[in-house]
């Protein structure tokens, strides 16, 4: 879906979220800890919420939130982000987007 | 048990005044070791020994001399001393009897507790170390999901002990890396089995899982979202993995850091969940029908708890996986052994704590 891809490319790190979702909040906190200020797009505040949800599910995000995009490419949901981080592969991905100390 | 009586018997045979041993055992000065039967002769023996230190040439001849000396003392003093000795000996025997009885009853109680535990384990109820009956009786409803989990977990712990012993034996016997690899893989898979079991149990009753009631009391002390903190376990294990290469040290440190960051993120997410649940329940339900919507929202929040427990277990699993990649087979085997031993000791500690004698109120 174009809107999803468009939003996903607006910033280096983009998290598709829902304002009531605490796991999305946890993922956002993790990126903050790594010195990144991700763009959080709240689906429940978007008029096209349903289509975007379907699009994300088709791309492989079961939840479908949180859905994390880095450099415009889908990384995955919480599981994938956590696995990447523990394997040491997340930080290299976000290196160019680290702004906070 | 044998040493106090041995000391007792030895002293009697030697007839030597041993204040130090008796004081520490029966907590009262012990004047002389004698029974009503030996009476006078024992006293004589004592005197003989004491005199021997002064004049060794006397030998046995001295004993008859001492007997005369003894007879020359005022008879009432002798009689009084005899009586005092008899009394002291009697009191000592009574104290010893009381002490032995206390030990025997404690032993009996411990055996009974062990049997009770075994009986309940066989019935499929895992109690852990706390003998906390509130979990057993008061819930009323039968939750087959958690009952099944408890039974499975009991088996899991037994299998864990068996595997740990196997690892220990293998490491001591210096088996080949290939054989060790098999044991390491079994060990890892065993942990993965646990996480699978927990995922199923989380769907049945997430509060039960998060309460840690299926674990022993000392383990519960370290509880973080239904289990152990991976970063803390790494801190426990790493010193036991020496020697590590420089690269390994860096890798383990990075893993620890990453895990800590992930744990913090999850903890904060959970806090947010608590806050929003609290806010949901605290909001005023003036408008009719909003009570139901309030409850519906709250129920949705609780569903999210399941995903947090699953994420925490995912973190534990990933930490194990990464460690197995960083370490050599032998190091991984040592790590699994150390981990197994650590949990076993925590469980043993829980049992000891539960069995400790309670002071009367």
Per CATH, the architecture of chain A is 3-Layer(aba) Sandwich
Radius of gyration of chain B: 33 Å
Q: State the share of residues found in helices of chain B, binned by percent.
A: over 70%
Low confidence ranges of chain B: 1-64, 127-140
Any idea of the CATH topology of chain A? Glutaredoxin
Tell me, what's the shape of chain A?
globular
Determine the strand fraction of chain B and express it as a percent band.
under 5%
Roughly how many Å is the radius of gyration of chain A? 13 Å
User: Please, what is the CATH homologous superfamily of chain A?
Assistant: Glutaredoxin
Spatial separation of the terminal alpha carbons of chain B = 29 Å
The largest sheet of chain A, given as strand count, sense and whether it forms a barrel, is: 4 strands, mixed
- Indicate the percent of residues in helices of chain A: 40-55%
| Rounded mean pLDDT score of chain B | 79
Protein architecture, described:
The complex is a heterodimer of chains A (101) and B (361). Chain A is 44% helix and 17% strand. Chain A has helices spanning 2-8, 22-33, 49-59, 78-86, 90-94; strands at residues 13-17, 39-42, 67-70, 73-76. Chain A has a four-stranded mixed sheet, with helices on both faces. Chain A is globular and about 35 Å long. Chain B has a domain at 145-282 and 292-354. Chain B is 77% helix and 0% strand. Chain B has 14 helices and no strands. Chain B has helices at 2-14, 19-26, 39-54, 61-72, 75-122, 133-137, 144-172, 177-204, 206-211, 217-221, 230-237, 246-282, 290-326, 329-355. The radius of gyration of chain B is 33 Å and the shape is extended. The relative contact order of chain B is 0.08. Residues 1-64 and 127-140 of chain B have low confidence and may be disordered. Classes of the chains: A alpha+beta (101), B mainly alpha (361). At the A-B interface, helix 2 and helix 4 of A face helix 12 and helix 13 of B.
């Amino acid at each position: 879906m174009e809107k999803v891809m468009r939003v996903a490319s607006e910033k280096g790190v983009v998290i598709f979220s829902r304002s009531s979702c605490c796991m999305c909040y946890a993922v956002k906190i993790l990126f903050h800890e790594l010195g990144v200020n991700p763009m959080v797009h709240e689906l429940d505040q978007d008029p096209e919420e349903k289509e975007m949800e379907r699009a994300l599910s088709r791309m492989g995000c079961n939840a479908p939130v949180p859905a994390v995009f880095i450099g415009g490419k889908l990384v995955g949901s919480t599981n994938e982000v956590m696995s990447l981080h523990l394997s040491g592969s997340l930080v290299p991905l976000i290196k160019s987007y680290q702004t906070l100390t | 048990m044998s040493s106090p009586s041995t000391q007792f018997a030895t002293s009697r045979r030697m007839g030597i005044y041993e204040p130090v041993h008796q004081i520490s055992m029966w907590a009262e000065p012990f004047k002389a070791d004698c029974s009503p039967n030996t009476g006078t002769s024992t006293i004589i023996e004592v005197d003989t020994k004491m005199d021997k230190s002064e004049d060794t040439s006397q030998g046995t001849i001295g004993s008859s001399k001492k007997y005369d000396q003894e007879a020359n003392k005022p008879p009432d003093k002798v009689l009084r001393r005899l009586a005092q000795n008899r009394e002291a000996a009697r009191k000592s025997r009574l104290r010893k009897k009381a002490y032995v009885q206390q030990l025997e009853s404690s032993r009996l109680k411990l055996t009974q507790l062990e049997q009770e535990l075994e009986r309940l384990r066989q019935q499929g109820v895992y109690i852990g170390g706390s003998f906390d009956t509130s979990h057993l009786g008061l819930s009323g409803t039968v939750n087959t999901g958690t009952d099944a989990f408890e039974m499975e977990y009991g088996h899991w712990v037994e299998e864990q002990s068996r595997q740990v012993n196997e690892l220990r034996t293998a490491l001591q016997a210096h088996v080949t890396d290939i054989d060790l690899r098999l044991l390491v893989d079994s060990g890892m898979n065993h942990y993965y089995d646990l996480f699978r079991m927990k995922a199923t149990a989380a769907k049945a009753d997430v509060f039960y899982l998060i309460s840690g009631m299926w674990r022993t009391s000392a383990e519960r002390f370290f509880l973080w979202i239904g289990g152990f903190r991976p970063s803390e376990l790494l801190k426990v294990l790493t010193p036991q993995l020496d020697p590590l290469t420089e690269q390994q040290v860096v890798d383990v440190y990075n893993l620890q850091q990453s895990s800590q960051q992930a744990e913090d993120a999850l903890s904060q997410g959970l806090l947010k969940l608590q806050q929003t649940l609290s806010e949901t329940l605290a909001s005023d339900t003036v408008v009719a029908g909003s009570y139901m919507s309030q409850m519906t929202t709250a129920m949705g929040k609780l569903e999210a708890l399941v995903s947090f427990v699953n994420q925490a277990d995912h973190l534990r699993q990933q930490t194990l996986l990464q460690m197995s990649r960083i370490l050599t087979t032998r190091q991984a085997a040592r790590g699994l052994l150390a981990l197994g031993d650590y949990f076993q000791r925590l469980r043993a500690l829980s049992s000891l704590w539960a069995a400790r004698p309670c002071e009367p109120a």
